[in-house]
Amino acid sequence: MSQKEKPATDNFNSTADLTSNPGFQSSLSIASKDVINEKAYNPFEHRQVEHPTTTVGAIAHILKACIGTGVLAMPAAFKNAGLLAGVIGTVFAGLVCTHTVQMVVRISQRVCVEAKKPSMSFAETCGASFEFGPKRLRQWGNFVKTLIDYSMAVTYLSVLCVYVVFIGSSFKEVLDYYYPGYILSIQTYCVLTLVPLALLCQIRNLKYLVPFSALANALLVVVFGITLYYVFVDLPSISEREMVANVNQWPLFMSTVIFAMEGIGVVMPVENEMKHPQRFLGCPGVWNVSMVIVITLFGIVGFFGYLQFGDLAKGSVTLNLPEDDLIAQATKIIMAVVIFFSYALQFYVPMEFIGRLLQRRQSRSYENVIQIGIRTTIVTFTVAVAAAFPNLELVISFVGAIFFSTLGLLIPAIIDTVYHWEKGFGKFNYRLHKNIIISVISIIALISGAYVSILGMIEDFSNSEQETEVHNSTLMY
Q: What's CA 226's distance to the chain center, in Å?
């Protein structure tokens, strides 16, 4: 057989690409078979939680986080809205806060699948929404994560300032009554908390605070029970209270309610520690059940607290309890002790972030001195801010307007928009329109709430200076 007649065997190798022949084309490749056979990543199956939280336990954690000093401020919030507007506003704010948290958790669960990570924190979720969003924004993921970390730290520092004001106000209410000859300013009482708080916050292991936390929770139940008793005793007629307050006061109401309800900082840790995290969302779901209880309780305390005390309602309803009643006065001190121990627990949030920054140090020398110095400096800072602005109602409103309206409303709307930018916003772009509305609400609450709070602080500061001048001139004569 000649060379020309020899059969072409090179086309009969075992790896011949049959799909190159039009008669053998197929839409199913070997790679696509692998994709079909590959099981989708389930982050819930990869979570290694040493002591997972039950569904009921998760609800208890959320209620504990949301029901604190905020619920005691609800009567003062209703004072700035009126009975009718207060109820409507509380339900509205509650629904918005509920939805924004749902957005964050849903995005977190989805980006965990894409990133193949078991769980993410709030800051990691925000960063991942950019990393898995539009291509031109992916480079901003790490920056966004760091920004949210810093924002969370500053937010909880502001909460610590509220706690100092609360402790100082409670002790002043009681001691001014029993020792009228030794009346001290609220600033002085705030400063007196410095040493005890600085010593308490030197405790670096959370487990040593667990007994105090358990005691604080038990005392908190007692405080609520006693406070509600005084709230419901001899209620005046509804006609004696405003149904709708002046519109100029509404920003104080909204920012106070947002401060009271927003639990964005605790949501992701609770969801990440659940035994059945898929039960966190949905109907009924852990979050929905918790928020129904929170909204109902806040509405009841706000409505009847304002009905009972009217325009005299203070930044914490415990401060409105009768001064001539020993049980009522003891309740104020007990609540101050509860907040004292809560300060140490909340202190761990900014310190955890600062601790991560300290781990980047190559040297471990003077670490104990640095820890003591940082902890003492943070406590001193919060006490100084509290002493400078000791009006509890205005401080709560300001913190709610600046920090919680941003982290709890604006940020969730932004990351939801970024994440779905290329994935679609649903029919009629409803998701985009909804997020725009939430963003507008957040910005309005931020600007108006901060503006009204700052004006109130300036006025309060001017009045205190005038009172000081009058007091000094009286002493001279």
A: 27
Q: Contact at 8 Å (CB) between 333 and 170?
A: yes
- Provide, rounded to the nearest whole percent, the portion of the chain with pLDDT above 70: 88
Cis peptide before 277 (omega within 30 of 0): no
Cβ neighbours around 25 below 10 Å, total: 9
Residue whose entry in the numeric block shows the structure tokens 């308490």: 200
Q: Using CB atoms within 10 Å of the CB of residue 105, give its burial: 0 to 12 exposed, 13 to 18 middle, 19+ buried.
A: buried
**Tally of CB atoms within 10 A around 168:** 26
Give the global pTM.
0.81
pLDDT digits over 264-298, tens only?
778 888 888 888 898 999 888 999 999 999 999 99
| Interior angle at CA 385, CA 384 and CA 386, nearest 5 | 90
User: 245, 81 in Cβ contact below 8 A?
Assistant: yes
Instruction: List 53's β-bridge partners, or say none.
Output: 274
> Sign of the C-alpha dihedral, residues 116, 117, 118, 120?
negative
Express each pLDDT in 423-434 by its tens digit.
999 988 999 999
Helices (H), 312-366: 326-358
What pLDDT does residue 315 have? 86
For residue 61, the surrounding DSSP H or E stretch is helix 55-66
Burial bucket for residue 345 (CB in 10 Å: 0-12, 13-18, 19+): middle
In the chain, the largest separation of any two C-alpha atoms, in whole Å, equals 135
What number of other Cβ atoms are within 10 A of residue 243's Cβ? 13
Token pair of 348 as six digits: 């761990």
